[in-house]
Amino acid sequence: MASRSPRSRGSCVLQRALSPRDGSVFSAARYRRTCKEPLYLIALDRYKTDPASQCHFSPVSAPHGFLYDATLSDGDCRVRVSLHPNLNPLLQNNALRCGSELYDVQFAVEFDEARLGGRCRTFQVLGLEIEEEEETRSPAFQRLRGLNLQSLPWFGRSDGDDEAAVAPLLARRACYLPLWDCDDYFGDAWESPARRAESPAHHSENDADEEGTQFVTLQQVKASFIKKSKGKLGPLAVRVLKKSRLCHFGKEDRTNECPYQAELEVADGSGAASVILWNSLCLRWYRCLDPGMVLQLWDYRVKESYSRRLGEGRESQDQDQDQDQQHIEISLNSRNPAAIIRVVPERSVQRGWRLPSLTFSFLTRAALASCPDGTVCDFIGLVRFVGRPERTRKKGGGGEEFSVYRWLQLDDGTGAGPILLKLHSTSQPETHARLRPMFIVVCTNSQLASTGSQQGGAPSYQYLTSTRHSQVYGHGQHRGRSYTTLPLVQRFIAWVHTLSEETEMSTAAVGGYFSFPPLPTNIKHYLGERKGNPCLLSMEELRAEVGRLQYREHRRFTVQGSVIAARYCRPGERQGEQGRLSTSRAGLAECSTRHYSSASSLDSASLEPHCSPVGSPEVPFSPHYLRISSTPKQSPPVRSPRKRPLGKCRRKTETPRKR
């Protein structure tokens, strides 16, 4: 679609605010401007700082951790800007988010001498005010909602250069990070399977001649590594058994354009090994590879395995494997040498390769009741409840890195009832965003855990948790999977067909606050869990800890005091203005879970892992679940209820502007 031409300089807000006042092409090397008229935040991106980021700031305000880029628009054009680190708390608390209306935006405009002969301008936002009152939104905001934001021209760019760079503005990074965690991929830089299938490189790789190619086995590779042979090894033909989530290892003091790593567990007829994708190969191949695929690998490097030092501890199943199979690791790099990866269709797999088939270890809810903690299994169930995403701080992340998880309640018709699944990131953001009640979900390589023991009379609860190698398959992703022919899965599908959709829908729930494990019922149980240390906080300490919480962060605090007032509210009743919970700030559902129906429309911000640009279309869905591979029926789109505003939330380094 052709981009619209911007209005004349007298009518475009960004041109009036950011252009040199004397009208000349060149002005001072750096100058400041303040835009009094409203601007709108339509996109927000996050990335890790690096040594190149320090030169853009004074030593006093040098950034640490993460930086943010934003796209602002006035309805006629848009501009890419970097945000000063002093504004980071507004983003971490989700006060500044996509769709925010901004006033008194202070810009620092600088000519970049390294680009286009010094004629390229860069923009940085130093300060701003946020307007959160819905009734005071300007008419321009409603007009902006009806526009195709991708068609707006870029301010300061010529007609032939109408695309914005996908790379961060103040760091040498190849792509952006998700807003709320570092375990998922994000952005168009990650090559999708559909886009790769259309690329000429994909067809040239698949058209390669295999006749006369002598493949080697993993056992031969290991023997050559032990003997320290220096000859070049032949290509490998292996099957992918497991796929780990992404590992982002970017550091502030190191320059690495693509600091990513992913691990594949592969095997052939002679043994198993780990394959590590490094750096830009993750961008090109991570989304295109799945367990069960057959790969041919050329120009790889062999190292001694150190995958046990990568992130979390390995599952107990991996610990029981023969150490002889995990002795080596295959490293695939984008250079020195540049590895070659080819996906082999199942119909082209040769019998002489002796590749093992992909196996599963499904267990029912009834069987899990007698299994010990640490059991690794696959599980299939009908989703009864979908919890809201929550975040916890990672150890060793400097307090700024978080892991995201959510609770699912799955039922397979066996045992005493459903079982809970603590679903961490599996680097499948699209699949996690589409999780809905009454859909069939399969989680592979999940691990059984329990909340404690029966000591002191405290009850124990079993639940499943995803692991580093877990994969989740939801609605529309089961077709063609080899597990659909297993007897246990067939029995589960038969049980689902016996259910009444109307009855099951009446009990389904989504969102809300869900606390697990349950809180202790008395002091004795609580002290037993804390091993005698109550860890009580004073009210002043509680106020300080709550003030440090970030968006979607989940923590538990224990305080001791006297109840001086209580108020009863009926389920679903809104509290007063002062005591109301801010659903906009939480980005989640109401405090209590709400029932799910086929005519209801979920708030996308309450389920998706990161902010979506304003104006993005809502995807209608249907909770039809009786066919494991059916195409979802298209229900008419229903507008989500408007979020309650935060209230007066003007923030600025100077005195707020009176309106």
From TrEMBL:
The family database entries (InterPro entries) matched by this protein are listed as:
RADX (IPR040893)
Q: Biased composition, Basic residues: where in the chain? A: 640-651
Q: Which residues cross the membrane?
A: none
Residues covered by region (Disordered)? 603-659
Protein name, per record: RPA-related protein RADX isoform X1
Q: Which organism is it from?
A: Huso huso
